[in-house]
């Protein structure tokens, strides 16, 4: 009987030790101890991308005052990974044209970001120049070339200086092709001084 009592006492002491140390299935849940954010903010360099582009997304957990909150890792998902795929670290890859919604979840709080993927603009574009510019609005890739093809009508092209990086103007010309390279991102408006109101725009993306 004494031996049985000693064994029972030892088992009871061991049980008390495990409970005090947090052992067994009843231990503390470390993940559950993290605070739940009031909101999550996603930041991205761009929401309009071209096929083949990649950008790094970031997500921040915020408290009720809008301050940063340490609330654990971010889980990223995409509503259509065939269009926009996002890695575990938030690297977004634009795969094909379309629209997708990206979701960042931190400690059960989520936020979303919509992105649009378009075809990569051409590197070489031609504008027909007569008494008007056709097409009037074009999109070209950065460092691309726009060729202004004059078709027998004397015309000139004056670029607006409102945006830095506009190429040099094209003086009165009636035939031939004059090329201009665009190395700065933005929208560059141009017009004719011979035909007031005739204008065009080069979008550099």
Report on this model:
- The structure is a single chain.
- The chain has 205 residues and is mainly beta.
- It folds into 2 domains: 35-118, Immunoglobulin-like, CATH 2.60.40.1080; 124-204, Sandwich (Immunoglobulin-like), CATH 2.60.40.
- Helix content is 10%, strand content 48%.
- The strands form 4 sheets. Strands 10, 11, 12, 13, 14, 15 and 16 form a 7-stranded mixed β-sheet that branches. A 4-stranded mixed β-sheet has the order 2-9-8-5, with no helix packed on it.
- A hairpin with a 4-residue loop joins strand 6 and strand 7.
- It starts with a helix and ends with a strand.
Topology:
Elements: H1 2-21, E1 39-43, E2 48-50, E3 54-56, E4 58-62, E5 75-78, E6 84-86, E7 91-94, E8 98-106, E9 109-118, E10 124-129, E11 133-134, E12 137-140, E13 144-159, E14 170-182, E15 186-191, E16 199-204
Fill in the CATH topology of the largest domain.
Answer: Immunoglobulin-like
| Portion in strands | over 45%
CATH architecture of the largest domain: Sandwich
Mean pLDDT: 86
Count of helical stretches? 1
- Overall outline: elongated
Q: What's the number of domains?
A: 2
| pLDDT < 50 runs, ≥5 residues | 1-31
- Report the count of strand segments: 16
Main sheet characteristics: 7 strands, mixed
The radius of gyration over CA amounts to 31 Å
Q: CATH class of the largest domain, anyone?
A: Mainly Beta
**Roughly how much helix do the residues carry, as a percent range?**
under 10%
Based on secondary structure, the structural category is: mainly beta
Distance separating the two termini: 88 Å
- The ordered string of helix (H) and strand (E) elements is HEEEEEEEEEEEEEEEE
């Amino acid at each position: 009987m004494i031996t049985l009592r000693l064994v029972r006492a030892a088992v009871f002491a061991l049980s008390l030790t495990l409970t005090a140390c947090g052992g067994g299935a009843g231990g503390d849940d470390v993940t559950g101890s993290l605070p739940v954010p009031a909101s999550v903010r996603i930041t991205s360099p761009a929401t309009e991308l071209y096929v083949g582009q990649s950008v790094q997304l970031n997500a921040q957990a915020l408290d009720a005052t809008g301050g940063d909150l340490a609330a654990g890792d971010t889980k990223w998902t995409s509503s259509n990974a065939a269009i926009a795929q996002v890695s575990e670290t938030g690297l977004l890859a634009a795969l094909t044209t379309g629209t997708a919604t990206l979701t960042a979840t931190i400690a059960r709080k989520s936020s979303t970001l919509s992105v649009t993927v378009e075809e990569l603009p051409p590197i070489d574009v031609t504008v027909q120049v007569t008494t008007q510019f056709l097409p009037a609005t074009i999109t070209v890739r950065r460092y691309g070339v726009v060729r202004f093809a004059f078709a027998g009508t004397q015309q000139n092209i004056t670029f607006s200086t409102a945006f830095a990086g506009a190429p040099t103007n094209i003086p009165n010309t009636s035939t031939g092709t004059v090329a201009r390279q665009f190395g700065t991102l933005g929208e560059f408006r141009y017009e004719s001084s011979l035909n007031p109101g005739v204008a065009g725009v080069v979008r550099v993306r």
